[in-house]
Amino acid sequence: ETGVTQTPRHLVMGMTNKKSLKCEQHLGHNAMYWYKQSAKKPLELMFVYNFKEQTENNSVPSRFSPECPNSSHLFLHLHTLQPEDSALYLCASSQDGTGGGYEQYFGPGTRLTVT
Amino acid sequence: AQKITQTQPGMFVQEKEAVTLDCTYDTSDPSYGLFWYKQPSSGEMIFLIYQGSYDQQNATEGRYSLNFQKARKSANLVISASQLGDSAMYFCAMREAGGGSQGNLIFGKGTKLSVKP
Fold it and tell me: Which residue of B has its CA nearest to A43?
């Protein structure tokens, strides 16, 4: 496996379900990110982890719970979601999260539909 | 105020022609980076090109070049010899050099490019 992988690629869940999104990076990076992409909106940063420590929580509702057990893996735990949470969830990684010219590499995303 | 502005929601270009996608940005930080990403219908964001604020020359990567005009705060993407596979959404993004939140990427709303055969 190379780059950034995300599973599942598609997820349909009811509002009372609990599910998790998984992201794995094989690039030796130290920073990982979760983004939300809704229709006709700019990409919204949700969470940033740098060296496994959360450094950014962009006012995300508590029904989204991130977990970063190591620098290669990032999870997004979902519970009691709302229909407006339906979106493409993108994971990314970069060499570090402290600024500078390091580009972020993205996974293919998980298309989430909340019914 | 928007930090990244992409004024073209959609663009059409004939195959093999060149196309310019516009991007303007707003920052008071003297040190920043500008990025372009491509997002095909499959969803993955693909990094294309990077320009640092102190770089003297415009960045180029294969058929992609970045027309960086610092005084105008513009960072337009030029795609030469368009191919059908270039049809996608294109996003301009900026990263300021400060730590914390300033180091995060800020994305524009994107431009949908359609290449006609």
Answer: B107
Query: Which residues on chain B are in Cβ contact (under 8 Å) with A45?
Result: 104-105
Residue A28 contacts B where some CB pair is shorter than 8 Å: no
Dihedrals phi, psi of A84, to nearest 5 degrees = -70, -5
Tell me, yes or no, if A100 comes closer than 8 A to chain B by beta carbon: yes
Q: Give B52→chain A minimum CA distance, Å.
A: 7
Q: Tell me how far CA of residue B89 lies from CA of A12, A49, B12, B39, B103, in angstroms.
A: 25, 27, 12, 5, 24
Give the amino acid at A20. S
- Coil vs helix vs strand at A97: coil
Say yes or no to pLDDT of B1 above 70.
no
Please tell me if residue B30 touches chain A, with a CB cutoff of 8 Å.
Answer: no
Residue A51 region, left (φ>0) first, then alpha (ψ -120 to 50), else beta? left
- At A57-109, the pLDDT tens digits run 878 999 999 999 998 999 999 999 999 999 999 999 988 766 555 788 999 99
Query: Nearest to residue B50, comparing CAs of B25, B70, B75?
Result: B75
H-run or E-run covering A35: strand A31-37
